[in-house]
Amino acid sequence: MNQSTERVSFELLRTDGDARRGRLSTPHGTIETPVFMPVGTQGSVKSLTTSQLAALGPGIILNNTYHLMLRPGVELLEQMGGVHKFIGWDRAILTDSGGFQIYSLAEIRKIREEGVEFRSHIDGSKHFLTPEKAVDLQVRMGVDIAMAFDECPAGGLPRAEVERSMELTHRWAARSLTMRRGRTSLFGIVQGGIHHDLRKRSVEALGELPFDGYAIGGLSVGEPKEAMLDTLRYTAPLLPRDRARYLMGVGTPEDLLDGVAAGVDMFDCVMPTRNARNGTLFTSQGKVQIRNARYKADDGPLDPACSCPTCSTVSRAYLRHLYVADEIAALVYNTIHNVSFYLDLMGQIRDSIESDSFGAFLRTFLERTSRSNTPGDTPVEREPFRE
Amino acid sequence: MNQSTERVSFELLRTDGDARRGRLSTPHGTIETPVFMPVGTQGSVKSLTTSQLAALGPGIILNNTYHLMLRPGVELLEQMGGVHKFIGWDRAILTDSGGFQIYSLAEIRKIREEGVEFRSHIDGSKHFLTPEKAVDLQVRMGVDIAMAFDECPAGGLPRAEVERSMELTHRWAARSLTMRRGRTSLFGIVQGGIHHDLRKRSVEALGELPFDGYAIGGLSVGEPKEAMLDTLRYTAPLLPRDRARYLMGVGTPEDLLDGVAAGVDMFDCVMPTRNARNGTLFTSQGKVQIRNARYKADDGPLDPACSCPTCSTVSRAYLRHLYVADEIAALVYNTIHNVSFYLDLMGQIRDSIESDSFGAFLRTFLERTSRSNTPGDTPVEREPFRE
């Protein structure tokens, strides 16, 4: 474990079209990109112990500042030696800044130039978060990568509103940077809705600031899928070539492929863990609704192409039984598989970029999964992905 | 793994007072006794994957015929190659016969000489279970040890009712034996409430039948604790010396010690797994209610004397955070520890019998746990233990 790095550094190893194969060095290890970061909102990737998660191999996970500041509190985390030590995780951690969660979860809020006032969704207590404080909290938790504090407007707002919000995010970005210190890196978040010119201005404004990496925010927030893809494909290639690019809170396996194709290096999404709890499982042959009666007597593995602890030890029939019988172990087995599926997919994507065959991989993947999605298996719904 | 044994055989290795150190050979491995069997009612020890459970070392677990016959169904289990293969468990399995569960869980029932009619607690469907059918189901599931089908009267019934019920259980015991076959062993269940003479008659009646082992049923069903202990201490030594003795559905760590002192070899109880889910954790220093605010900033292990995967990787503070934040991982970590605690306790008991120091171990254990139960940690309630 490399513990000596000062902040992160990104090395671009190879490209295949716009797709990028890179390497991100962090104070808690080196991460091969493109990478998927499992989401551990409250300091736990839901349903898994830290050891179970570690065995699946991710080099970096995501935690949420919003949740952790409310419970157990950043002061406690400092007292416990930082969030890594508290949760027993010695690899890298990225935290979302709290911006998105305040807009989507908190009960009441007032947005001012200085910051955002909100009430906790847990106990209604009142809090005030500024760009400076959001970064300070992340630095004090000892995370490897902190995110700037942004305003994340809902999809479908009038352009003038999106523009006003974006300008605020830019001013907050500069203020966020004043609190970066120690080994914690800081990524800026590009906004601008689905408007090309706004996205371009946002990239330019943030590109003038010395962020350690750049994220694309404000996608998958209710806009049409085509607008999301169009914005992604337009924006990603504009980002600084020598920094990691992170597409926040997206998405389905197909979305990850689209993101990589557009030049994105980092992803996070609650989809694999949340869908696992809903019994929707990703496989090399498409999605499986494990509660479906057709799996009742199916003694084959969930995904014959998968070697995760679930697929190598139990059958679809047993997974269905556990799910239907409301056993907690169903959530554990399902989560192990879905997280493995996402991590394996990223590994395959990295391999394909290295062999200049990403385009072929993308086509084969889409063809295989769309062909074999059986009619009874309802498709995964699009959900609010950035938890 | 010894797969060749025909049915079980019990070897009594050593005694220390009435306490017995023995060895039970089964078609799925040899079990050192006294032994605790974690309860996996529906084919899953709640909150754990089969691999997680196996890593904790139990040589035998309990499943319930009642639950498995309703879901996923014995026909399916046969089709899947038996319950061991279905759940991915290659060590021994004992099944309760369904008698107790019908009385405590099913919706409507009619008890006749022939058997019991009941409605499923899951979907209200009607079922009829006889002694022959209960054993046949267990044999078809391929379990190592089946239990005879008994009637388990509630505590506090008039003596005449207890006697009538006991006589029925004796007739059902003989009928149960007619369906024993293959490698599945069959244990008889002694009844008789809290009446010494009835218990003696029950032991004599069942002792004349060629069961592979004997269980004490009908305890911890609402009778006063002292009556339970008195009946246990009277009944256990009466049982055949050359067969394994199993105290069903009991109990607290202190109950296990009392049971061993009376000469019991086998135990099962939902307490470690159920209490784990309620946040009540057993430690070498007494019980811990992990939600208690006193553990908020406690960075020590849950039990300093324990080397389970929970105690060796995370702190009380993190366990409290996970529990308070309703994280599924809390249930997993807690269950890992409580099951480990029960298994470790049995190992210590076996060691103490081998060194002729069980009495001293018993006294030290009771003194240590009672002394250090702190006032804020409410005691574990007595629950219906035989799930």
Describe the structure.
Helix content of chain A is about 40%, strand content about 20%. Chain A is an alpha/beta fold. Chain A folds into two domains: about 35-270, Queuine tRNA-ribosyltransferase-like (TIM Barrel); about 275-370, no CATH class. An eight-stranded parallel β-sheet of chain A has the order 4-14-13-12-11-10-6-5. Chain A has a three-stranded antiparallel β-sheet with strand order 1-2-3. The two termini of chain A are about 30 Å apart. At the A-B interface, α1, α12 and α13 of A face α1, α12 and α13 of B.
The total of helices of chain A stands at 14
Here the CATH topology of the largest domain in chain A equals TIM Barrel
CATH class of the largest domain in chain A: Alpha Beta
Distance between the termini of chain A: 29 Å
What's the arrangement of strands in the largest beta sheet of chain A? 4-14-13-12-11-10-6-5
Which two chains have the most extensive interface, and how many residues on each?
A-B, 40 and 40 residues
Low-confidence parts of chain A: 373-387
Taking the sheet with the most strands of chain A, its summary is:
8 strands, parallel
CATH architecture group name of the largest domain in chain A: Alpha-Beta Barrel
> What is the overall shape of chain A?
globular
β-strand amount of chain A: 15-25%
**Could you say how many structural domains of chain A there are in total?**
2
Quickly give the structural class of chain A.
alpha/beta
Indicate the percent of residues in helices of chain A. Answer: 25-40%
- Let me know the number of strands of chain A: 16
- CA radius of gyration of chain A: 20 Å
Q: What oligomeric state do these chains adopt?
A: homodimer
What is the average of the pLDDT values of chain A? 93
One letter per element, helices H and strands E, the order of chain A comes to EEEEHEHHHEHEEEHEHEHEHEHEHEEHHH
Please identify which CATH superfamily of the largest domain in chain A we are dealing with: Queuine tRNA-ribosyltransferase-like
